[in-house]
Amino acid sequence: xxxxxxxxxxxxxxxxxxxxxxxxxxxxxxxxxxxxxxxxxxxxxxxxxxxxxxxxxxxxxxxxxxxxxxxxxxxxxxxxxxxxxxxxxxxxxxxxxxxxxxxxxxxxxxxxxxxxxxxxxxxxxxxxxxxxxxxxxxxxxxxxxxxxxxxxxxxxxxxxxxxxxxxxxxxxxxxxxxxxxxxxxxxxxxxxxxxxxxxxxxxxxxxxxxxxxxxxxxxxxxxxxxxxxxxxxxxxxxxxxxxxxxxxxxxxxxxxxxxxxxxxxxxxxxxxxxxxxxxxxxxxxxxxxxxxxxxxxxxxxxxxxxxxxxxxxxxxxxxxxxxxxxxxxxxxxxxxxxxxxxxxxxxxxxxxxxxxxxxxxxxxxxxxxxxxxxxx
Length: 376
Prior knowledge:
Blueprint: H1 3-16, E1 29-33, E2 39-44, H2 53-61, E3 69-72, H3 86-93, E4 97-100, H4 112-119, E5 123-126, H5 130-136, H6 138-146, E6 150-158, H7 176-186, E7 191-195, H8 196-202, E8 217-221, H9 232-235, E9 248-252, H10 259-263, E10 267-270, H11 277-286, E11 291-296, H12 298-306, E12 312-318, E13 346-353, E14 356-362
Parallel strand pairs: 3-4, 4-5, 6-11, 6-12, 7-8, 7-11, 8-9, 9-10
Antiparallel strand pairs: 1-2, 1-3, 12-14, 13-14
């Protein structure tokens, strides 16, 4: 690993500190090296609407930036948005070389920042650690490319592959350490999505405890519109906050059955004759949601699997046995017919969480396809 790669990997680690706080913006990290190649300053994009990584890094470097190198994980912006163009700050600081991991496909940038710097006489190199930069900002890139958010699928199951007993009891399959990890994940996404069955069976609040950087929207999919008259989601729909949760959004094909929910503060969205996951994700994308978490139950997770909308998987396996043919497995739906069609995850890791094992992986390819409506 050469010096520039070392500093780019350091910048990528800095960028990751913004996870959950900067979306729908990308995570960006930057390092300034002085003319002798020594670290002079560093920074990362910390909050949505706040200063960009380059500004933090250049500010911390001060006059030591003059004649130096900027190492940054994403192409510097060249347009006026919530903040001034970063290219202006780079030129004012006297930077003579910029090393960029990847170009920014955002239409108002899209190579313009690189071109502007080169036109001003700055030496610009693009592509160092590009694959890592792309992986880091995969949710941002997917939203730009498809108009849909990055979809996390999560479930906890027993060693024999069950998510509840045949009576529907599921508290608790996983241990405290695993549940803490789930709450950390909840606190970094824009929405938590469940189906009607989960609302009826578990009466969830769908919050992050303790609160994280975000108060995720609480999303329910119910084609029938048959939801409980009394439940935590309905009674807290107006009480938006870090403790009570984000806004409640209900997608349905029968909005007339949810007039009471709407009166209590829920955003009831009618979606034709059924509730297609693709239509739901398209609407969430229009709201600029970057990451969403589908928690179940089996029907919704099965629909997500059949439609191949999952991008990232979080599975907790507990060393417990339930048994019973009527006890549900995590994925309902149609499934695949042959093992040759099974989905093999990429970049799979596993680690112990107390007595449980956490398995984390990614879908082998991106993209979405419209599929059959979700029922329930």
